[in-house]
Design goal:
Helix content is about 10%, strand content about 60%. With about 425 residues, the chain is mostly beta strands. β20 (about 390-400) and β21 (about 410-420) form a beta hairpin. α1 runs antiparallel to α2.
């Protein structure tokens, strides 16, 4: 049983890497095929199934609406339950068919209007042709209720419906060169509001169409150097938001460590050019990053992260902001069944354009708004079985801003499940 759970946890790390970020998620066909055969031990007919249950943020939230410090805040007990099943059908030695079902329920004890049920579904097909050419395609409908961006002041339903395809040339050593293309329709909804004029939908609903060129080169036994070039077009749904249409181009490079082992994760840095189609809007060009690495050194675990990118703002008079977040965490393994985690995250949201802010019935013009947010968390994690652990955490969130109405304090005490003990 412990061995099975450990295998499931290993494959879960593979699955969670599926979101394309700086192209870092690509795995060559043979590596993925062998990994599924080794780790997906549960069989239902021709399907190899990996079941996973996630529990997160189960506890007391002191400020569920992220209201301003000093105003009337509302606490509540909350939890997110998320079972998932991934099925794989290996056809011969050159075809992988996959399907995923992931329902999710967000519970609130008192604020019943915030309760929500979502379901995510995806299916994919991957083929190896002439031993060297990998072709893949996928279709997905991914829906969650969460704070999808740092700016959102409450949990919003976000749904991404889209498809993608890729064509890669692979060498026996693991090097891969290829092209990918995708589109996603993003939709947003305030689950606590029945208003037909949803401000989140009006400002953020859009289609993103992307094309990328990607290279992966094996540098160690299981590590890869990668570089990508990506072009994206943003088209907004509502005519009132057509002025938000834009395009971007970015190049990036980095190192991806093994999915399992003493060192895991990805180092990625790049440069991005974001060009609004409206000549009245300010463009952005500069550093972007998507780094998340973890190391295990004896009884000490270290995890580091740095993310920087541009993101669209839901504020009516704002366009976009630069979101930068740095994270450092330590885990002390005090016993084979117990560790203590501590994490610090610091971040900023910089708005390049002037914006109007309504506060107390007055309008304030903020030339260059900057929000600073800090999150500190600490708590024990107890091993349940294999690499599965049950954690308790206390964390507090603080946001300060040079714009009135955006100073926020939030405390949270609760429990979660982890598959990385």
């Amino acid at each position: 049983m412990m061995k099975k759970l450990s295998c499931y946890a290993g494959l879960l790390l593979v699955m969670l890497s599926g979101v394309r970020l700086f192209g870092q998620s690509y795995r060559n066909f043979r590596e993925e095929y062998d990994d599924i055969k080794e780790r997906a031990r549960l069989r239902l007919g021709p399907l190899r199934v990996v079941p996973v249950f996630r529990l997160s943020e189960a506890g007391l939230d002191s400020n569920v609406y992220f209201r301003e410090e000093g105003s009337e805040v509302i606490p509540d007990f909350t939890a997110t339950f998320s079972p998932e099943a991934r099925g794989y059908w290996l056809v011969g030695s050159s075809v992988i068919v996959s399907v995923t079902e992931n329902p999710e329920y967000l519970f609130y004890a008192k604020e019943k209007e915030l309760r929500a049920f979502t379901n995510s579904f995806s299916t994919g097909l991957r083929m190896l042709v002439l031993r060297s050419f990998s072709l893949d395609a996928d279709y997905h409908v991914l829906s969650h209720v969460r704070r999808a961006t740092s700016e959102l002041d409450r949990r919003i339903r976000d749904t991404a419906t889209g498809a993608g395809a890729g064509f890669f040339f692979e060498t026996p050593r693991g090097t891969a060169i290829g092209l990918t293309g995708s589109f996603d329709d993003f939709r947003y909804k305030d689950v606590a509001s029945d208003s037909p004029d949803d401000v989140y939908a009006l400002a953020l609903d859009r289609r993103e169409t992307s094309a990328a060129f990607e290279i992966y080169y094996r540098v160690f036994a299981q590590s890869f150097f990668f570089t990508t070039a990506d072009w994206t077009r943003y088209e907004f749904v509502f005519p009132e938001s057509a002025w938000r249409d834009a395009r971007s181009f970015e190049v990036s490079a980095g190192l991806r460590f093994p999915l399992l082992g003493r060192a895991r994760g990805t180092l990625a840095l790049g440069w991005k050019s974001f060009q609004p189609e409206s000549p009245e809007r300010k463009p952005f060009s500069g550093l972007v990053a998507a780094t998340d690495v973890a190391f295990r050194l004896g009884r000490l675990g270290v995890n580091l992260g740095y993310v920087r990118d541009s993101a669209f703002s839901y504020n009516e008079s704002a366009y976009y902001y630069i979101d930068g977040r740095a994270r450092a965490g330590l885990s002390l393994y005090v016993a084979p069944f117990l560790r203590i985690d501590g994490t610090v995250q610091l971040g900023t949201m910089d708005y390049p354009e002037a914006q109007e802010v309504w506060y107390g019935g007055d309008v304030f013009l903020i030339d260059r708004r900057e929000d600073v947010h800090r999150t500190f968390s600490v708590g024990p994690v107890v091993r349940v079985v294999g690499t599965v652990g049950l954690g308790l955490t206390y964390n507090f969130y603080r946001r300060t801003s040079n714009a009135p109405g955006f100073n926020v304090r939030r405390n949270f005490v609760g429990a979660f499940l982890t598959y990385e003990f």
